[in-house]
Amino acid sequence: MFAGLPELGISNGEDLKETLTNCTEPLKAIDQFQTENGILLPTLQSALPFLDLHGTPRLEFHQSVFDELRDKLMERVATIAEGKDEDRYGKLKELLEKSFPLVKMPSIQPVVMQVLKHLPKVPEKKLKLVMADKELYKVCAVEVKRQIWQENQALFGDEVSPLLKQYIVAKEAALFSSDLSILHNFFSPSPKARRQGEVVLKLTQMIGKNVKLYDMVLQFLRTLFLRTRNVHYCTLRAELLMSLHDLDISEICSVDSCHKFTWCLDACIREKFVDAKRARELQGFLDGVKKGQEKVLGDLSMILCDPFSSNTLVLSTVRNLQELLSQDALPRDSPDLMLLLRMLSLGQGAWDMIDSQVFKEPRLVCIVTRFLPAMLSVLVDDYTFTVEQKLPSEEKTSLSYPTALPDNFNKYLQENRVACEMGLYYALHIAKQRNKNALQRLLPALVETYNDMAFGDIFLHLLTAHLTLLSDEFGTEEFCSAVFDGFLLNSFSSKDNVHRHNLRLLLHLHQKVLPSCVETLVKTLEPSKQSSDQVKELYTKLTEKLEAQKKSPPQPDEAPSLDLGLHPVKTHTSLRSPCLMPSVG
């Protein structure tokens, strides 16, 4: 406990023990030891007996004086460090040399840590001693740890790794939220609010103004993104940069070539739309990538691969296509649309670009010449039918809703990731419009998509939320069949996440779904032994809710509305019903 005192010429307990062992008059020896090692203030000696008269132990008195002096010293250290004295760090180093031998003494340790904290460059020998001692490393300030980490990437990785895991777990948990709402979904929090998350704030603090540590974190994120293909690492890359931007850490922002691009895109994400002014700014950044600097496209593609970026870009693309439709304009003649597709393509190709280290923008020819005309024809069909429905009955034609989709639309959903993303968001758009016919037409085409994107958690999270807008339609066999048999049940047995999303939707809408269909779905969705604990937990919740519903029938005044929603509606016999299909592989 008192190790280090002899090095400073101060007596400790061992010295007192030796003195008492060798002396002939113990009381006189103790008195002398106290005089030599007490507070060397002559006027104090005559005052001490007064404390004895008041029953105040000498230990208590000395401890209070010690605590006061220590606090004053720590304040003085901070004052010296913040001052303008050219030799301020020399003074701190001198104090460090004198105090460091006592670093293991609990009462002195805060002083030593305060000195270390305020030294911009701690002597290497001292850093190694702190790093080698787990207890010292644990209590030293983050300013000291930064100096250790920048020379020890493995140790920094050990510190960062649990935070990255925590971040990913939180993002994935949000996608399986029990709350199905179009207003409060995964993309609802503003960028600023997301940057207040525990992990982002902690990483920002750990990095401080240290460019080397920032580069290490980016390298960790790139490596993990390549290893796992998890796009949430791209989100963290953007959030971290903007968190440092919020704190005005120019030392880092000025050297990150993505800073201004990310800043502009962040404003678009906040508005959930890319307007014409910001589109020109973003295009300027992309066009400004000079020959020999193409590597920056790898970082830009990772920023654009962030789901929050993709969400904004695709929403803007769908909105842009609708405006072109209303103006009778061609997609290829819209610079804003071309830019959106360019950025979408860069983001969707991020993994391939970083993995191959070939930094070239993907070509858009097939998207523009083949897929967009097909997608616009689908939009025209939906628009025409919607207008037709609003006409007075005497002006309506015998127009029936088309059931097939253009060949190129289906083909590119399966073969092109950008086209697929646009198709998926169009499905969300028509669900938001409560366009049941368009959704029933489109859902079967989503069974086979590029890299099974339609069965990814982000899309299923959004789709289940949007389907709540059509909750009354689940009272019909036709709509239940389209949603469950036509799409959702197609891969639940092989994909645990799809199983979970099916159960989430049913948990939320079971009172609206046709009772006979609920019964079949409950049997179909029963977990197997291999199912995850989350699936089993959701299934148990569902069965408990259904049992509770049976035991407490609706009140008489609610009966009519529930009755209308629960009776089967007659449909054409050619339409399949989930009630007739206990399971779909």
From TrEMBL:
<dbReference type="GO" id="GO:0032021">
    <property type="term" value="C:NELF complex"/>
</dbReference>
<protein>
    <recommendedName>
        <fullName>Negative elongation factor B</fullName>
    </recommendedName>
</protein>
<dbReference type="GO" id="GO:0034244">
    <property type="term" value="P:negative regulation of transcription elongation by RNA polymerase II"/>
</dbReference>
<dbReference type="InterPro" id="IPR010405">
    <property type="entry name" value="COBRA1"/>
</dbReference>
<dbReference type="Pfam" id="PF06209">
    <property type="entry name" value="COBRA1"/>
</dbReference>
<feature type="region of interest" description="Disordered">
    <location>
        <begin position="545"/>
        <end position="566"/>
    </location>
</feature>
